[in-house]
Amino acid sequence: MKFYSIRKFVVQACLFLAYLAIFTGVYFVQSFTSEYGLKDGTGICEAYQETSDFEQHFVKYLERVAAYARLRDEGFEPSETFSLVRGHALLGNDYKAYPTDSELAQLEFYNRKLNTADTSFLYYVKGETAETTYVSPQLQKAARNSGKTYLEYITESIDAGAPYFVLNDTGIYSTNLETYGYLTTSVQEYLMENSSFTTLYAISTVDFEGTIDDFTPGYKSFTQSFSRYESGRRISVIGAVLFILFFVAAVFLAGYVDGYRPIEGVTTPAELRAAKRAQIDLRGYDKIPLELAFLINLAIYGLTNGLLPALLFRNFGSLLMFNGQVQYLLYFLVDLGVSYAIFMPFIFSAVRRYKAGTLVTNTAVVRFGKLIVHWVKRFFENRNITLIAGVILGIYLVGGIAACILCFLGGIDPIFLIVGIVLYLVVFFFLTLQVLRTCADLNVVVQETERIQNGSFDQKIPDTLKSAPVRTLGGYINNISEGLQSAVDEQVKSERLKTELITNVSHDIKTPLTSIINYVDLLKRMDLDNEKANGYLNILENKSQRLKTLIEDLVEASKASSGAIQLQMERINFIELIRQSCAEYEEKFEERQLQMIKDLPDHSVYIYADGRRTFRIVDNLLSNAAKYAMKGTRVYVDVTESDETVTLTVKNISASQLNINADELMERFVRGDQSRSTEGSGLGLSIAESLAKLQNAEFKLEIEGDLFKAVLAFEKM
Amino acid sequence: MYSILVCDDDKDIVDAIEIYLSQEGYQIYKAYSGLEALDVIDKHEIHLALMDIMMPDLDGIHTVMRLREKNQTLPIIFLTAKSEDSDKVLGLNIGADDYITKPFNPLELIARTKSALRRYTVLGSLPAADNIYTTGGLVVNDDTKEVTVDGEPVKLTPIEYNMLCFLVKNKGRVFSISEIYEAIWQEPSFGVDNIVAVHIRHIREKIEIDPKNPKYLKVAWGIGYKIERL
For the domain A566-715, what is the CATH superfamily, name and number? Predict the structure, then answer.
């Protein structure tokens, strides 16, 4: 065996011995107190004279005194020689010389009992005459030795607390020996009728050590028992102290196989606890649920408690019979030992469990409870929330109805009624709490979702909602909004990239184009004589200018359509703007013999728009008219008003046939002339349309035959 | 004889500009990156720089920033394909005096160059008088009824002159068409045709280097016209 196990074994052995010691002591104490407890239960006899045995014998002696006095009064004389003999076991034999039931035999008997030198019982029967006065020889000796009279001696003794009895001829007596009720009225009557004394005195010297009389056996027995009692008390106390010490030691040692190993390398208290627990060695018995272990022990105890005594008695009963006390003690100890052997392992198992942290967790109640909770959770886990609510409310309802029925049927004790009502209310409280929580959570979800709907995608539904299904819902909504956010981001990014691309590309195209335009111009300045060359140079100049316009328009159209323009909206006078724009085209119209016919209101009409961009639209319309109207025709520029809107209409007759419809014309790069031979990039209308849309204005084209109509409408401010 | 620095990473463009400007009588220095430009300006007396923006090593913007930090007050004109409004604003804020976008009209380039040079070299040579109204390089002398732009005289009709004078006297303020009419003709402006707008356009074409991008006589579309306070 390992050293550590030896230590444990030793501790356990000492523990057991201490345990036995306690109960041994208890046994002695118990046996003493049961026999020598005071009648009124207030304590124990501390001296023999307080015992009932003493009282019993004392009363017996009184009766003997009375009988002796009577006999002496009648004239019988005891043998003198005997009165001086130190009496002992021969008592019974000597007076067999006389017929056993004769009065003389009785007298002799009393003589021996009362007048022996070894007695502690002293009597003084005071008669009317000296002849009828009888004094025990012991009293005579004692009085003589102390130089007092009998009465003095007796009174002194009584004062000193000695047990006494005094009776006078009137029947009045005085004594301190009425604890156990041996001084019955019949005894008193006997005493009275059995003598003619005036006063009867009787005391005990309580010198039981030095005397041999009827008190002696009782006294010996008492003394023995008392000393056992005293030592028993000591043993008990010492045993208890030792028991506690060893128990503590055993508890300390419990569970470790090799002793407690110091823990290293842990940082948190939780880790420390876990490391300590890991060191505990749990045996098989320690692993079964606590209640079960206890029940096993109980069963074993029950069996042994029934069987064992029977077995013992049957087989060893004869052996144990020789000394009643020893037998009982042994029986007692064996019983104790067996109980110890049965229940101590349980206690230490509990200690080990506690050290390993499984004391509470490894009980049937807890394990079963956990199982139930687990099943319930599993049941409710992924169920429809309606189903869960229905089941819970259903159980609640059924429970309530059942309880009511029971109440009505059974007249239940008010206590149960109250308990039932309390339980009902508690469950109701919890259910209400759940419902309110779920509702509150739903509210939160609705609010947050509204915010998300309004565009703030970074709002998140909090993760701290109490109700699980609503939390899941919140999680889904968060995911959706994240998806939305990234979709929006993607869209914005793609638009931005597109615009950047166009801007960058146009920049890259403009650079070489610059050189082309420059060198063409330089060539033109060189005034070449070659006519054809000059013609070619003109063409080159035209085309490169066209390219330039095209690129500029392209960038503008792209920005306008993707909304990447920063509008500067302000309150402007639409009429003023139209006038300003028309002025720009006076010459151009004249060049193509176009007549501009304006119909503008006299007053100002204000709109909320970007001046520059609106000019661009009007500019485009007039430019188109200037380019594509048939020479010599009229161009109509009209402004009409309604309550809420102001409309500009530009009408002209197209120089060439318009083979397409209005919608197609507004598409990018589409021009009225399918052959694309005239100037212009074809983006103008598309740009105009985009700019109008950005400013929330209406822009449309109408084509009827050769009549080309452009309409631009704004909301009035 | 003025010296002009032409800086662009495209050699062909630099050569073309050299031809244009040397025909006007300027001495041309060439550079193909910002660092080279700084170097040239350090070593020679340069009266005007034509600067591209997109260049390797040091781009035009940073070059101009450094020049202005070194207190080089020479006029700088950006010559670039970056034509966004934001680019123009940036360029002018950095310290350039003018901004021309590519592809450019060579005549416009020459005109702006001359204008910038005149402004630079003719600083402070104008007497401050009550009846002389100036803004930038535009000078309206109400005593002599003469108008000059960067020193070059401009011929205006009487009505055009009145209009311009009126606007220059109130430089920075926007006037609507009717307001201008009433100021000049001293009559209420009902049912009049587009005289004012047409006159404005004529004036613009006469005094501006690029009437489409006017420097002095600006159009506030839908509101009116003004002479910019420069």
Answer: Histidine kinase-like ATPase, C-terminal domain (3.30.565.10)
